[in-house]
């Protein structure tokens, strides 16, 4: 939300939540004006008519809500965020094991049944290399740390 405020030139207040379901209840109850949560968390309150999708912060529209534009399509380019899940191992994991785990994971993500289920969840499998993923995490941490620091958000 802070990034949206900066790009749009509007004032926003960061309101932390433990999860999307709590934020969805508050947007439905009129306690928030807007919220960033996953399409899956928002879907029940949108279906009930108590909230509506405005845009998705992705490079492409999401499969579960194809009618909802991206922020770029809605006139606000530069706002792309993603929620992601990953497989991590302990520090010092031998390269051979990391390589094998990556191969098995990539193989699993290519399975049609897995891809179909992930599409239902609006998830896009990536399966990037361990080095590419490490760079993604490092750059994401740096970007979010800068945003949090500049917005003076208190992290507990």
Compact overview of the structure:
The chain is built from six helices and no strands.
Topology, pairings included?
Blueprint: H1 2-8, H2 20-28, H3 39-47, H4 95-109, H5 112-120, H6 130-150
Helix pairs in contact: 2-3
Question: Which characteristics define this entry?
Answer:
156 residues, mainly alpha
Structure, explained:
It is built from six helices and no strands. It is mostly helical and 156 residues long. The longest helix is centred in the C-terminal third of the chain and has 21 residues, at 130-150. It is globular, with a radius of gyration of 18 Å. The mean pLDDT is 89.
What is the H/E string?
A: HHHHHH
* Main beta-sheet strand count, sense and barrel state: none
Percent of residues in β-strands = under 5%
Task: Specify the helix fraction band.
Answer: 40-55%
Q: Count of helices?
A: 6
> Overall pLDDT, averaged?
89
Q: Total strand count, please? A: 0
What class, by secondary structure content?
mainly alpha
Rg, rounded, reads 18 Å
- N- to C-terminal separation? 18 Å
Query: What is the global morphology?
Result: globular
Low-confidence stretches: none
């Amino acid at each position: 939300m802070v990034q949206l405020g900066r790009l749009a030139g509007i004032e926003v207040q960061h309101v932390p939540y433990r999860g999307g379901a709590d934020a969805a209840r508050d947007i439905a109850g009129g306690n928030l004006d807007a919220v960033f949560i996953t399409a899956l968390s928002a879907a029940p309150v949108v279906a009930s008519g108590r909230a509506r999708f405005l845009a998705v912060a992705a490079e492409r529209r999401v499969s579960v809500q194809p009618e909802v534009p991206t922020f770029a399509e809605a006139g606000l380019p530069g706002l792309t965020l993603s929620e992601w899940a990953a497989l991590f191992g302990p520090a010092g994991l031998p390269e051979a094991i990391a390589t094998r785990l990556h191969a098995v994971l990539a193989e699993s993500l290519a399975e049609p049944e897995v891809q179909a289920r992930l599409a239902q969840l609006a998830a896009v499998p990536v399966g990037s290399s361990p080095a590419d993923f490490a760079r993604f995490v490092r750059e994401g941490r740096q970007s979010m740390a800068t945003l949090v620091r500049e917005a003076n958000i208190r992290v507990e």
